[in-house]
Amino acid sequence: TPEVIAYEKIVTKVADKLVTKLGIIPLFPKPDEVEIILVWHRADYRVKDLDNILKSIKDGLTKGKVWSDDSQVTSMLLRSVVDTCGVENEWVEIYIRMIPRMDLRKR
């Protein structure tokens, strides 16, 4: 939808600004594996698709050079929360961290 595309562009712009400010491009180069935790604060109880929000955020973070490729995201926690504190706007908290590679091959 046009709303999702517009949201992805905002995420890209913010991510690119942060990565450029830090001077590390991409922030998580290959072969780093990355975990993201996403908390979507919704303004109401209307049914919305968390998958679309996740996709637009992952695409925006990839285009914003946070990581080299979104296949590096090997762990995700997604949560949708209705924020009834009178806040009319929706917002998203995004936490990103590198996770250690796990080699499960027989030693």
Let me know the average pLDDT: 88
Structural class: alpha+beta
Walk across the major sheet and give the strand order.
2-1-3
Described by the principal axes of the CA atoms, the overall outline is globular
Helical content band: 25-40%
The biggest beta sheet, please? 3 strands, mixed
Please provide the count of β strands.
Answer: 3
Blueprint of the fold:
Elements: H1 2-22, E1 33-42, H2 50-63, E2 73-82, E3 91-99
Parallel strand pairs: 1-2
Antiparallel strand pairs: 1-3
Helix pairs in contact: 1-2
Summarize the structure.
By secondary structure, this protein is α+β, with helices and mostly antiparallel strands.
Explain what the structure shows.
The protein has 107 residues and is of the alpha+beta class. The chain has helices at residues 2-22, 50-63; strands at 33-42, 73-82, 91-99. The protein has a three-stranded mixed β-sheet with strand order 2-1-3, with helices on one face. Helix 1 (2-22) runs parallel beside helix 2 (50-63). The longest helix has 21 residues, at 2-22.
Which features characterize this protein?
about 110 residues; three-stranded mixed β-sheet; about 35% helix
